[in-house]
Amino acid sequence: MNFFTDNDDISLALSLADMERLATLSEHGFCFAKDFDWAPKDAADAADSYRRVLELVGEIAAERLAPTAAETDRNGSVLGDDGQVHYAKGIREAIDLFGKAGLMGFTLPYKYGGLNMPATLYTAATEIVSRADASFMNIFGLQGIAETINAFASDELKDAYLPDLAAGRTTGAMVLTEPDAGSDLQAVATRAYIADDGEWRVNGVKRFITNGCGDVLIVLARTEEGSTDGRGLSCLLVEKGPRVRVRRIEDKLGIHGSPTCEIVFDDAPAKLIGLRQRGLITYVMSLMNAARLGIAAQSLGIGEAALRVATDYAKERRQFGAAIATFPAIADLLFTMSSDLQAARAITYYAAVCVDLERGLEDKQQSRKYRNFCKLLTPMAKYYSSEMSMRVANGAVAVLGGSGYMRDYPAERLLRDSRITTIYEGTSQLQIVAASGGVLGGTLKEAVEDVLASREWDETLAPEVAKVREVVALIDEAVAFVKTQDAAYRDLSARRLVDMSAIALAGALLCAQAAVCEQKKRILSRWMLEGVAKAKAMHAIVVSGDAAPIAPQADAESR
Amino acid sequence: MRPAPPAVRNYNMDTTKRGLRSVVCVKQVPDTKQVTGDAMRPDGTINRAALPAIFNPEDRNALEAALSVRDACGGTVAVVTMGLPAASAILREALACGADEVYLVTDRRAAASDTLATSYILSQAVAKLRPDLVFCGRQAIDGDTAQVGPQIAEKLGFALVAYASEVSIDEHGLAVARRDVGSGVETTRTRLPALLTVSSAAAPLRPRNAKLLMKYKNAEPTVWSLDDIGADLSRCGKAGSPTNVSRVQSVVLAGGDYRAFSADEEGAKALVAELVASHTLG
Q1: What is the CATH number of the domain that holds B31?
Q2: Cβ atoms within 10 Å, residue A110
Q3: pTM
Q4: Residue A363's pLDDT is what?
Q5: Under CATH, to which class is A174-281 assigned?
Q6: Å from A160 to nearest chain B CA?
Q7: How confident is the model over B194-205, as pLDDT tens digits?
Q8: Residue B276 falls within a domain, yes or no?
Q9: CB interface of B with A, residues 188-207, below 8 Å
Q10: Chain B contact present for A56, CB below 8 A
Q11: Residues of chain A with pLDDT > 90: what percent?
Q12: What ipTM was assigned to the predicted interfaces of this complex?
């Protein structure tokens, strides 16, 4: 079994991403091959290596990780009397395996022992790992911590911490959330100060910290005394040690293999990352964007696992003398789940490509264009994919019926695991707010046109392209209307604007896929048929001006 | 970082200077889990074209044992196979797992070798590499003979430890092995040079490493012919193989009659007594 080679849709998404182009950007003209004997020598060599590495990820995920997922879910992590967090056996083994396989430094530079791979490749790897065990993704997917150190910390810190992180000898955590600072990170109260010895110390309590028992903690703390907003916050690196105590681990609905810790910092020694006061506004925002792409990929993996469980079951389960997959109601459910997943994958991989292009392109104007795309697409991918994973996992339970509700099948675990994806790294509601700026500002339209202008459309696809433009026109009208309304109405309409945008962007991307893959046409035409109908309905609601949910009396009535 | 190798003595080669030298013998085999109708030829030999070729499972355990000894004591691991040029695929896999050198013995004159001829040819190749330790998988899934490892040991004059499930080198430079002996576990200490056959109860092979995978993706092994290893041709191939497969039969074990036991304590006792009598239990 191999979770990469058995999934043609990932290969299709990667082939449209033009891996040779991304490799040329990340390899800086293939200058690393002379110093690092595993670095690619040219674009074709890189694309070939990328494929082999994903095959390796797919093999380990399918053969070694997936078989442990159910037991990991049952046993979870344990906080021992010794104050140490003990991972589930499967997670402990997976950390060792992925470390030995050299997969824990996917995007880090060669000089620290990394693979220097594009974000798009890491996104694919994250999806594949999550399909095997979504909870291990919370450790595999924390490579953004090393990326943050690489992007913003001093050479001294990079040299000290990155080689071990890349080799999987250490793991990290991003330590942001506090009891009173969840979505609103500006309210962070954990304090950092310079002690008499001239070194930084951190004091405070952090909550809901994924892998908070890790060795390298990036802590968001208030360094500017008397400040009250995000400009008083900085990022500090704290090593696991006697002054860092995990006080409890959460008992959760899902992702049981991932320990969620409450941590007490008791004058813990720390090192400043980069500059003071840039912690939230620059570093965490950058870290968060990578993390959101990671959660989008995790959602794809959960969706893929759920769709396969449901499809296999529907083919085998016989009722009324026939396999249930042949019944229209079940066929419709499976088809809808599959389209939903493919649309989410198209958006997520496109967002990843934009991240790589923004980082890699030297042309300032081009790079700026993709930076704007990223600001829209990263939250949109996170929102759409995570909501998709819940819908698809829920659909899988429906297809399995009573069996889906039982622990004998993985459907219920996938449903529980999917639920977190719409919450952490920013809730769906926050992603919508972040993405709606790009919709209102016209970036969405630009991104869709960018995809549509990338090729000539034959007579079979031209009608679908026309439907995409029809949806874009509806978005235009809705946006124009919203701009005449107040801020509260804009926020109220944001979800529908972003939903319409996902229909249009996924539609454009599915058109591009259908141009090179005949089987996509069936999904595409149904996607646009339903998409235009849904977009019209959302358009009607937005341009109605009806504000019932936020009208002052609504609150009183609902009580 | 690897710890410094222990002071090794008690055998004829000074490994402290060059490090412990291990050789692993591996085989590319048809994946017998994927057997289809055309897996066997009418003459009773295996139709290798009909089955995907894989790294013999217990040879993977043997390679892991060698690599973990190297991780603990230093030294080098060389991997040898005899087969068609296509067998280079498993040698590249061995390199991606961390093997230091790989060798392919390939020669038309080696075709149709039985276990006696195969072990002779491999012993010639292994001897050329002057190892302190040789690791073989307990048996290959195509022939299931478990003869090649012990026969190589015999030809090299090495001590043999079969069925090892754990291997390490102690502070005196002795090979310490846990062996599954059916009714229990035995721990042996053996002077080097020695040959160990490793069973599937041992640790699974570590995953390929992404960097090594990229580095060695087009690597070619050192290729040796029978002349290169100084083999006596009369001991190779068909000429050196006294074994002839005269007939292959598919034996289907059919159950006889059945006996019913009542679902109470008496019935259970009677069932256990029956199972003990038939040596299924006890």
Answers
A1: 3.40.50.620
A2: 18
A3: 0.90
A4: 87
A5: mainly beta
A6: 16
A7: 999 999 999 999
A8: no
A9: 206-207
A10: yes
A11: 93
A12: 0.91
> In angstroms, rounded to a whole number, what is the distance separating the alpha carbons of residues A304 and A133?
12
Residue B3 in domain: no
The pLDDT tens digits of the residues spanning B117-138 come to 999 999 999 999 999 999 999 9
Contacts A–B by Cβ distance under 8 A? 42
First CA to last CA distance, chain A:
54
A115 touches chain B (CB under 8 A): yes
What are the residue ranges spanned by the domains of chain A?
Answer: 8-171, 174-281, 290-549
Confidence of residue B38 (pLDDT cuts 50, 70, 90): confident
Task: Please state, in angstroms and rounded to a whole number, the distance separating the CA atoms of residues A546 and A261.
Answer: 43
Are residues A237 and A161 in contact, defined by beta-carbon separation less than 8 angstroms? yes
Q: Which residues share a beta bridge with A249?
A: A261
Residue A188: pLDDT over 50: yes
Q: A49 vs B207: CB contact, 8 Å cut-off?
A: no
Please say whether the dihedral angle defined by the alpha carbons of residues A218, A224, A227 and A232, taken in this order, is positive or negative: negative
* C-alpha–C-alpha distance, residues B43 and B245, integer Å: 9
Subunit contact A52:B217, Cβ cutoff 8 A: yes
CA of A101, closest CA in chain B: separation in Å? 4
Q: Which helix (H) or strand (E) holds B185?
A: strand B185-190
Residue B208: closest CA among chain A residues belongs to which residue?
A101
Show Cβ contacts of residue A553 under 8 Å, excluding neighbours closer than 6 positions.
Answer: none
Contact B217 A49 (CB under 8 A): yes
Average pLDDT, chain A: 95
Contact B206 A38 (CB under 8 A): no
Question: A27, A38, A53: which to substitute to probe chain B, counting the most B Cβ within 10 Å?
Answer: A38
> What is the model's pLDDT at position B7?
40
- How many Å apart are CA A510 and CA A487, to the nearest integer? 33
Distance CA B210, CA B216 (A): 10
Peptide bond into B193 cis (omega under 30): yes
Asked whether the predicted pLDDT for residue B14 surpasses 50, the reply is no
- Whether B214 contacts chain A with CB within 8 A: yes
Q: Please list every residue in chain B whose beta carbon sits closer than 8 Å to the beta carbon of residue A97.
A: 206-207
Model confidence over A433-486: pLDDT tens digits?
999 999 999 999 999 999 999 999 999 999 999 999 999 999 999 999 999 999
Under an 8 A CB cutoff, do B210 and A59 touch? Answer: no
| CB-based contact A102 B206, cutoff 8 Å | no
CATH architecture of A290-549: Up-down Bundle (1.20)
Percent pLDDT > 90 in chain B is 62
Residue B277: inside a domain: no
Residues of B in contact with A52 (CB under 8 A): 213-214, 217
The answer on pLDDT for B8 being more than 80 is no
**Other CB atoms within 10 A of residue A54 CB:** 25
* Count: domains in chain B: 1
Q: Measure A114 CA to nearest chain B CA, in Å.
A: 9
In terms of residue numbers, what domain contains B218? 15-235
Where residue B18 falls among pLDDT bands split at 50, 70, 90? low
Report the pLDDT value the prediction gives residue A554, as an integer from 0 to 100: 54
The Cα–Cα gap between B154 and B119 comes to: 9
Looking at CA atoms only, how far is residue B172 from chain A in angstroms?
Answer: 29
Instruction: Please give the Cα distance from A317 to A227 (Å, whole number).
Output: 62
- The structure tokens listed for A548 are 């019932």
A100 contacts in chain B (CB < 8 Å): 206-207, 209
Residue B247, in any domain of the structure: no
pLDDT tens sequence across A372-382: 999 999 999 99
CATH fold label, A8-171: Butyryl-Coa Dehydrogenase, subunit A; domain 1 (1.10.540)
Amino acid at B224: W
